[in-house]
Design brief:
about 25 residues; mainly alpha; flat; 2 helices
């Protein structure tokens, strides 16, 4: 959801988060 994206975008970028988002969008 957009709320989740907005929440994550507030956090400092980390490879773990990026990989997690990659897996979520890939599924």
């Amino acid at each position: 959801s957009e709320e989740l994206i907005a929440y994550i975008s507030r956090l400092p970028p980390s490879e773990d988060v990026i990989r997690a988002m990659d897996e979520i969008s890939d599924t």
